[in-house]
Amino acid sequence: MKIAVLPGDGIGPEIVAQAVKVMNVLKSEGMKIETEEALLGGCAVEAAKDPFPEATQKLVKAADAVLLGAVGGPQWDTNPRELRPERGLLRIRKDLGLFANLRPAILYPELVSASTLKPEVVAGLDILIVRELTGDIYFGQPRGIEIRNGERYGFNTMHYSESEIRRILHVAFGAARKRNRKVCSVDKMNVLECTQLWHDVADEVAKEYPDVQLTHMLVDNAAMQLVKNPKQFDVMVTGNMFGDILSDEASMLTGSIGMLPSASLDQNNKGLYEPSHGSAPDIAGKDLANPLATILSAAMMLRYTFADEANASRIENAVRKVLQQGIRTGDIYEAGMKKVSCTAMGDAVVAMM
Ligand code: IPM
Ligand code: MG
């Protein structure tokens, strides 16, 4: 198993180190794991004047999977677009063809009171957001800011081909078969033609999955339903832009974005695994960050890329037991619990394994 490790910026290096510790447990038991580090994001801009430098491109192409921390920070926000950390992330997704972004939003029973919603609304929440990741307005041409009729004019293009829609719908239906067999496809077909096509293709693909129930929802309503009655959802599937927004919303239902992993997969289950949260520059370098989302991302890597369900669940169970013991990083701390550092949280998971 060749794993490219990209710690990135901010808290990235601290949280990735904990996930690597967890992988090293498996390595010490005889699993053949090779890890190699490279730069992505702001650190790569500093070192190589490129957020996704050639050495990193080579490494990730040769690897079976990529483990990523987080990229970005305020010091790069005014850089030209090509030299921003986020650009590195978008390029790695596109270059590796990682079109399927899986973002689970699971509420751990121990963390029910971390949510800003009432316990009865969120208890038992388990949603999987399937976000298309290499198309849509994110990558559409033409795009830009130019002068037209004597004033500045900004424009982007939303587009999807039928085949791009079809393949992500297949991922969603496939995932639903392993869960509660419900897919909600989110679009804005009352206004946007591009998403009318999305809607129509979803209906076509659904015919191949008679055992899975397909519903459609407009994105504005979906945003509302997510806070009103989130437990109505099993799998939600949507395009890149809507998925970006809805997945942040869904993650906060759990009250703890520091807990949520993600997987971005290509056609052959090669994947990039990263926590759903950002680089948290305010707490970087202080050993305060919650490494659990990154550790759970490593579990997703074992499940999806290496088809090792046993060790994936073993890591997830270790995380649950650590929570049951009241061990908490600052972001999920409540009175009466034991507050620990990022490193100590990693150690606790390792010990529990
Ligand atoms: C995400 C992030 C990225 C995105 C940014 C950092 C480019 O918000 O992974 O959701 O918009 O896809
Ligand atoms: Mg986002």
Q: What is the top-level CATH class of the largest domain?
A: Alpha Beta
Say which CATH homologous superfamily of the largest domain is assigned.
Isopropylmalate Dehydrogenase
Q: In sequence order, what are the helices and strands, one letter per element?
A: EHEHHEHEHEEEHEHEHEHEEHHEEH
Strand content: 15-25%
Q: In whole angstroms, how far apart are the ends?
A: 20 Å
| Structural class estimated from helices and strands | alpha/beta
Just name the CATH architecture of the largest domain: 3-Layer(aba) Sandwich
Strand order of the largest sheet: 2-1-3-12-11-4-5-10-8-9
Number of helices: 12
Number of domains: 2
Bound molecules: 3-isopropylmalic acid, magnesium ion
Shape type: globular
Roughly what is the average pLDDT, rounded to an integer?
A: 96
Defining key terms:
2 domains, binds 3-isopropylmalic acid, ten-stranded mixed β-sheet, alpha/beta, 40% helix, two-stranded antiparallel ribbon, 14 strands, 353 residues, Isopropylmalate Dehydrogenase, 12 helices, binds magnesium ion
Task: Tell me what you see in this structure.
The longest helix has 17 residues, at 12-28. With 353 residues, the chain is of the alpha/beta class. The chain has twelve helices and 14 strands. Strand 8 (182-187), helix 7 (193-206) and strand 9 form a beta-alpha-beta unit. The radius of gyration is 20 Å and the shape is globular. The chain has two domains: 1-99 and 259-353, Isopropylmalate Dehydrogenase; 116-254, Isopropylmalate Dehydrogenase (3-Layer(aba) Sandwich), CATH 3.40.718.10. The strands form three sheets. The protein has a ten-stranded mixed β-sheet, sandwiched between helices. A two-stranded antiparallel sheet has the order 6-7. The protein has helices at residues 12-28, 42-48, 54-62, 85-95, 119-122, 162-177, 193-206, 219-228, 240-253, 292-304, 309-324, 342-352; strands at residues 2-8, 34-37, 65-70, 100-106, 126-132, 144-148, 151-155, 182-187, 213-218, 235-238, 261-265, 271-275, 327-328, 338-339. The structure holds 3-isopropylmalic acid and magnesium ion.
